[in-house]
Amino acid sequence: MNLSFLVQLTYIVASVLFAFGLKLLASPVSARRGNQLSALGMLLAVIATLAGHHMIGYQWILLGLVIGSALGAFVAVKAAMTQMPEMVALLHGCGALGSVCVDWVHYLKLQHQPVFVIGSVEAFMLFLSIVIGGLTFTGSLIAWGKLSERIPGRPILFPWQQIVNLLLAGGILLSGVLFLLQPARIDFFYIFLTLSFIFGILLVIPIGGADMPVVISVLNSYSGVVACTTGFVINNTLLIVVGALVGANGIILSVIMCKAMNRSLTNVLFGGFGAAKKKSGVGVKKEVHSASVEDAALILEAAHSVVVAPGYGLAVAQAQHAVRELSQELEKNGAEVRYAIHPVAGRMPGHMNVLLAEANIPYDQLVEMEHINPIMDTVDVCIVIGANDTVNPAALNDKSSPIYGMPIIETFRAKTVFVIKRSMAAGFAGIDNELFYNDNTLMIFGDAKDIVQKLAAEFKNK
Amino acid sequence: MEQQLTVLPYQLFILALSVFLGFALISKVPPLLHTPLMSEANAICGIIIVGALIAAGAEADSPFSIVLGTSAVALAAFNVVGGYLVTERMLKMFKKKDPVK
To answer: Which residues pair with A458 in a beta bridge?
Structure first.
C-alpha cells in the first residue's frame, strides 16, 4: 500500500465523519458529539495531508497554523451570542479568501504548465473559483460590517447602480473568456480577481440590515461552492464533498429565511427593500389600551398557559435573563410557559434560540411557529417582547400591506396579549401594527428588561 | 488535460451524490439548531486547509507564493478553530428542562 492511497482512505474517513457530524446535529442531545466527531475528521484530514505530501516549508505552515488558530480561538471565545451573525459572516469571508489564496498559488505554480491550455477544465474551474471566492470574501466583509454596525445597515443606493453592476459582470465574463483562450496570461487573471472583489461589495451594500439573515445564508452557500471549485482546481475530492455539503446547507437556510419573510430570493438580493415605499399609514387615529405592571401581574397570576413571543428587541434590551426569571416565577405559580420562535426573530437563522438558550432557558420550551400557532387559542396570556412585524396580523388579512403573506406568530388569538414596547414606533419594515389596537391587547410601555424585571418582582413579593 | 478529462466525470459524480447527501442531512436539522449548524458549516468549510497546507508546504517559486500559502493556512485554520469552538460553545448552552423543579 502506498502513501497516497492511505491519504485518500483517510480523506474518505474524514468525509464520513463530517457527514455523520451533520447527521447528529438533528437533535440537541447528540449535537455536541456530532461537532466533536466532525472536528476529529478535520484533524485526521490535516494529519494525513501533512504526512502524505512532501513538504518543504514547514516553518510557514507552522506560522500560518499558529496565527490562524490563535485568532480563531480568541474570536470564538470572546464573541457574544448577539454577535454570532457577524462572527459567521467573518468566517465565510475568511474561508472564501483562503480558497482564493490556494487557487492563486496553484495558478502561479502551474501557469506555464501544459495543464493550463486553451479551454482546459482547470482554467475554467480556476476562473469560477476565483470569481465566486472573490465576491464572497468582500461581500461577507460588507455583511460583517453591516451586522456589527461598522457601516450603516440601511440599503446604500447610488445612481446607475444596476448598470454599474451589469458592466462589472460583463467585465468579469469578458476577462474570463480571454483567460480561457490564453490561460498563461496572468493579467487577465488579475483583472477578474479585482473585478470580483469590487462586485462582492456592490452586491451586498444595497441590501438592508433586516435582510441580513438571507444574505448570510446565501454567502454560506457560496463559501461551500468556492471550496468545491477549489477542489476541482487542485484535484481534491475531499474539498468537493465538503463544499457540496456546505453549499446545500446555505441553499436550505436561504429558502427557509425567504419563506419566513414571504419574499423571493431575487427580491431580497436585488430588491433594495426597506429603502422605498413607506405606506402613508392608517388615517384613523385608533386607540390603544395600556396597562401598568401591577395590572399585568394580576392577569398573569390567573393564567395557566403563557406564551412569550420574543423578537430581536428582546436581545437589544438584554432582557433574556429577566425573561427567564419571570417564567420561573410563573411556573412556580403553576402556569405553563412556552416561547414562540419565529424563523426570522433574530439576525440569522436560529439566532433567537441561541440567545434564549444562553439565558438558561431550556430548549424544550422553545416552540417553532408552526407548532405554536395551532394551540394559540388555548393560551391565556401571550407576551410580545421586542417583536413587531413577526406578530403583525396585517400579514394575514391586509392585502395592501408590504408584509402580506408572511407567516406570523398568531398572538392575537390568545385570550390576552401583552405588548411590551418602548413607544408606538413602527418595526423594521415601517409598518403599522393593528395588533396594538385590538381589544384583547394591553400595551405596557417602557424598557423591556425593566418591565420584565418588575413583573418578576411582583410575583416574588407575594 | 486528458488526465483531467478522465477524472472529471468521477468528480462530478461524487459532487452530485454529495449534494443529495447534504440536502438529506441538513433538512433534518431543526430550526432550533440553525445557528450552530451554520457555524459548523463554517468549520468544515475550513477543509480548504488541506489545499492550503499543500500550497504552503510545496517548493515555492517566489516569496509572493509563500505569503499567499501562509495566508491560506492561517485563514483556513481560523475557520477550523473558530468554527468548531464557537459551535461547541453554543451547543453547550442548549439544555433540557431540569426534571427537579
So the answer is: none
Q: Look up residue A366 and give its three cell numbers.
A: 422553545
A216 contact B CB<8A: yes
Q: How far lies B99's CA from each of A364, B90, B96, in Å?
A: 12, 22, 9
ipTM: 0.94
Q: Do A42 and B41 touch (CB under 8 A)?
A: no
Of the candidates B40, B45, B74, the beta carbon closest to that of A25 is on B40
Query: β-pairing, A336-341 with A366-368?
Result: parallel
SS3 label, residue A383: strand
pLDDT tops 90 at residue A357: yes
Contact A40, A27 (CB under 8 A): no
State whether residue A196 is helix, strand or coil.
helix
Q: How confident is the model at residue A23 (pLDDT cuts 50, 70, 90)?
A: very high
Contact across the interface for A101 and B34, Cβ inside 8 Å: no
- For residue A442, the SS3 value is strand
Share of chain A above pLDDT 70, in %: 94
**A340-349: pLDDT as tens digits:** 999 988 889 9
DSSP code of A399? T
Give A29-46 pLDDT, tens digit per residue.
999 999 999 999 999 999
Nearest residue in chain B measured CA to CA from A217: B38
Distances (CA, A) of A190 to A121, A431, A441: 19, 46, 60
Contacts of A137 (CB under 8 A, 6+ apart): A93, A96, A97, A100, A197, A200
In the set A103, A211, A389, A432, the catalytic residue is A389
CB crowding B8-42: b at 16 or more within 10 Å, else e: eeebeebbeebbebbbebbeebbbbbbbbbbbbbb
DSSP A387: -
- pLDDT, tens only, A104-157: 999 998 877 776 677 788 889 999 999 999 999 999 999 999 998 888 878 888
For residue A336, what is its C-alpha cell?
A: 405553563
Which one of B59, B68, B75 would you mutate to disrupt binding with A, by most A Cβ within 10 Å of its Cβ? B75
The SS3 call for residue A443 is: strand
Please name the helix (run of DSSP H) or strand (run of DSSP E) that holds residue A166, with its range, or none.
helix A161-181
Q: What is the dihedral of CA A129, A134, A137, A143, to 10 degrees?
A: -120
Round the average pLDDT of chain A to a whole number and report it. Answer: 89
Q: Is A220 on the interface with B (CB under 8 A)?
A: yes
Rounded distance between C-alpha atoms, residue A336 and residue A338, angstroms: 7
- The three cell numbers of residue A286 are 385608533
Q: Write out the three cell numbers for A12.
A: 474518505
Evaluate whether B26 touches B38 at the Cβ level (below 8 Å): no
A274: confidence class by pLDDT, cuts 50, 70, 90: very low
Cα angle at A437 between A434 and A443, to 5 degrees?
115
The whole-model pTM stands at 0.90
Radius of gyration of chain B (CA): 19
